[in-house]
Each structure stands twice: as C-alpha cells, then as structure tokens.
Amino acid sequence: MIYVIKFIYSFVLPPGLFVLLLLVPIIWLWKRERRASVFLLIVTLLFYLSSTSLVSDLFIRGLERQYAQPQAVQGDVIVVLGGGATLTTPDLNGKGNMLGSAANRLLTAVRLHKATGLPILFSGGQVFADSGNEANIAKRQLLALGVAESDILVENRSLNTKQNAINTALILKEHGFEHPVLVTSAFHMPRAVVEFGQAGLSVQPFPTDYVSDSKFTFYPAKLSPNAGAVSITGLALKEYLGLFVAKIR
Fold first, then answer.
1. What's the CA gap between 220 and 125, in Å, rounded?
2. Where are the transmembrane segments (predicted)?
3. Which of 44, 91, 149, 229 is most buried, most CB within 10 Å of its CB?
4. What's the chain look like in SS3?
5. Looking at per-residue confidence, does 1 or 205 come out higher?
6. How are beta strands 204-208 and 180-185 bridged, if at all?
7. Could you report the per-residue pLDDT of 38-89, keeping only the tens digit for each?
8. What does the pLDDT read at residue 104?
C-alpha cells in the first residue's frame, strides 16, 4: 500500500503535477484540433518519461559505465575536478562548502591520498558570483582532513572542464608530474578524459560519485515522476552534448 501511496503522491507535486495539468489542454483540443492535441501529447509523454527514474538511470548509466574504477592506482599525482561550491554557508573552520558531487570527489581523493601518499591537485574556480571558489574551499577542507599543505596544489581559475584540463596541464608541467590520476564523477569522466587528452595529458581515470547502481533493477516506482529524475536526465543530456562538442572541436 505504501508504494501505491507514493506513486499517487508523485502526481501531487511537480513534475507529476505538470503532467496532469498538460492532460487538460490535450483532452480539450482532441476534438477541436487533433494535430495540436497529438503534438502536445507527444511533448507531455517525453516530459513524463524524462522525469522517471527508469529513463534517467538509463541515460546516466551510459556515461558511468564507460570507465571502470581501477583496482590499482598508477600515477604520480591525484587530480580532482570541482563540481560546485557555496560561497558563504557555514563550515566547521570557515565559510563555503563543496556541493554533493564535488564533496564526493574530494572524499575519494583524500582516501586515495592516504592509501598512496600521492599529492592532490584540486582544479576549480569561482563560476558564479554567488558560488564559492572551489579550489580554495577544497584546500581548507583538505587541511582540516589531515592532508599536509605540502601535498596540496590548487588551480583556482577554471570555469569549465576545458579550462580544468588546460590550466592543470600547466601546473603539472611546472611541478614535473607526468602521470595524473583523474578523479571526477563517473558521469563526467568521459568528457573529462577527452578534454584532458586534448590538453596533452594521458590520465588514469578514477571515477567516483556514482548516481546509478551498476545492476539494473526495475520496480513500479521507477515510473513515478520526480524532480530528482528530471535533474539527472538533464545532467546526462548536458554531458552527452558536452562530450559531442569536445570530440568535434
């Protein structure tokens, strides 16, 4: 019964509510303007499907499964890419926090550092006026997590993945590093590998921050519309588009 209630509840709030509201003009137009009604029905169906976990998982899984997490790290530096940060939110020892994906990437980098002793280079600047400088916040948090300052490098000017790659390449060359271990979200790794390759860097991909489970499982709740699925679908489509542009550039 609880799953039935959850399914019904998913149509009370957006995006499920919008799907129901779109049915009203579809029904109204059906006998008056059949073509317009059919067009609107197709658009509504696409919107509904894109807001389900069934579709969003399929999209994001296609990106996340392109690179497996290696069993052994082979490199001389850990390169971590930013993924968003707040500017003035309170932290234990300052202001500004990494957002979810960026925090997961940072956590993976710290664990790799403790396992290998490799230094960490964090790449990411301040993208928007109300977002934090990712590399600067990351350095503060790395120090708080016990990473020695001598093992931390920051690249705090990049605004996108292409700049991450170009600016990181310059710093690595300056410090004599040649075999970077690249840490970023699994869905972001395919585009990041292409961008770093175009910047002249051959990286060992170490994907983390997985969104979808490695094993596909279907249950009725995956057909419920939800805002999280819309976000993941949009995120996946953005990565596919970015990957396409990076390859043809």
1. 41
2. 7-30, 36-60
3. 229
4. CHHHHHHHHCCCCCCHHHHHHHHHHHHHHHCCCHHHHHHHHHHHHHHHHHCEHHHHHHHHHHHHCCCCCCCCCCCCEEEEECCCEECCCEECCEECCECHHHHHHHHHHHHHHHHHCCCEEEECCCCCCCECCHHHHHHHHHHHCCCCHHHEEEECCCCCHHHHHHHHHHHHHHHCCCCEEEEEECCCHHHHHHHHHHCCCCCEEEEECCCCCCCCCCCHHHHCECHHHHHHHHHHHHHHHHHHHHHHC
5. 205
6. parallel
7. 999 999 999 999 999 999 999 999 999 999 999 999 999 999 999 999 999 9
8. 97
pLDDT on residue 81: 98
Letter string b/e over residues 138-161, b meaning 16 or more CB atoms within 10 A of that residue's CB = bbbbbeeeebeeebbbbbbebeeb
Domain 77-208 is in which class? alpha beta
Residues whose CB falls within 8 Å of the CB of residue 75, separated by 6 or more in sequence, listed in order: 118, 179, 180, 181, 203, 204
Please provide residue 155's backbone torsions phi and psi, each rounded to the nearest 5 degrees. -125, 100
Tokens of 19: 């799907």
The token duo for 146 is 């016990």
